[in-house]
Amino acid sequence: MKKIILMSISLVITGCSTLDVDDDFSDSVSQIESKQNYQVVTGKTLTPEIINIKGGQLVKSTLEFNYVVSNLKQGVPDSYITMELQYFKNYNQFHSVVFSQNGSTEKINTYAAATETCGDICTTTQYIKFPVDEALFLDMPDQDLHFDVAASKNSLFSFSVPAGYIKALVESGNNSVAGQKQSVNVAPEAKAVPASQQSKVFEMSQYWYEQLAKSEQDSAINWAITNRNQWLDEPLSASKEAEMFSYWYKKASVDERKEIIKQLLEL
Q: What is the pLDDT confidence band of residue 229, given thresholds at 50, 70 and 90?
């Protein structure tokens, strides 16, 4: 993973439950994060509509749409989707995405190692990330975003993301950038958000993560993902640093844990 040294200020963090395709999307923003020359507007977790299942058994799927909007007239990263896919275990993991609107294909990246759970039936959960061409949602703002997540031509899941959900994030990001540009015109230097205003669990989770040995940090990320929705009381390791990381992570809410994971992945 490339390490990007950029100033990152969390502007908005709100609690949320998982959205459904039939919900009102007027309050769809989870957070707006300001980078050096762009902003990332992250949507609240959404359960997408399942259009088709071919050659597999899907157990659960959730995603977050991340709209990237530039502060300046220069190149910025693509907008992207982060997604969790839980399905009956098989020998083929999903590796590509095909967008229905224009037939374009994108390679899937993983933001954490896949996990496996076994009871009567074994399931695999993949944590994936893939870019979305802005033409697919800016040029066609009233069309739902349709895409296939594919392991092979005979194994794919087809999903739909509501246009209203994406449109709410785009409008929020554009308004935020417009307001920031206006502030820059008034004040010659923007003031950073004081660290004291940041959530204590974010600050302390990051601090103790950074104290972990390099060999422990990947394990800590995977452990945090496993414990993001419920507490399983599985110890991370016996070190003091791991114990303190576990303590502060446990104090975080479910939504804060998801943001902590994203924060740590960017370090």
A: confident
Tokens of 126: 């993949």
How many angstroms separate the CA atoms of 88 and 122, rounded?
Answer: 6
Helix 200-211 and helix 254-265, axial crossing angle in degrees, nearest 10? 40
pLDDT tens digits along 100-137: 988 999 999 998 889 999 988 999 999 999 999 999 99
Phi, psi torsion values for 242, nearest 5 degrees = -65, -40
Q: What is the DSSP string of 70-89?
A: ESSSS--PPEEEEEEEEEE-
Measured CA to CA, the distance from residue 192 to residue 51 in angstroms comes to 44
Q: What is the rounded radius of gyration, in angstroms, for the C-alpha atoms of the chain?
A: 19
3-state secondary structure of 181: helix
Range with the poorest average pLDDT among 88-97, 116-125, 194-203:
194-203
Residues 199 and 15: their CA atoms lie apart, in Å, by 13
DSSP string, 109-155: EEEEEEEEEESSSEEEEEEEEEEE-THHHHSSTTSPEEEEEEEETTE
- Beta strand 19-20 with 46-47: parallel, antiparallel or unpaired? parallel
Q: Is the torsion defined by CA of 50, 54, 60, 64 positive or negative?
A: negative
* Closest C-alpha among 85, 87, 62, 52 to residue 157: 52
Looking at the chain, the whole-number percentage of residues with pLDDT higher than 90 is: 37
What whole-number distance in Å separates Cα of residue 106 and Cα of residue 96? 6
Reported as a pLDDT band with limits 50, 70 and 90, residue 199 is low
pTM of the model: 0.65
In the three-class reduction of DSSP (H, G, I as helix; E, B as strand; rest coil), residue 250 is classed as helix
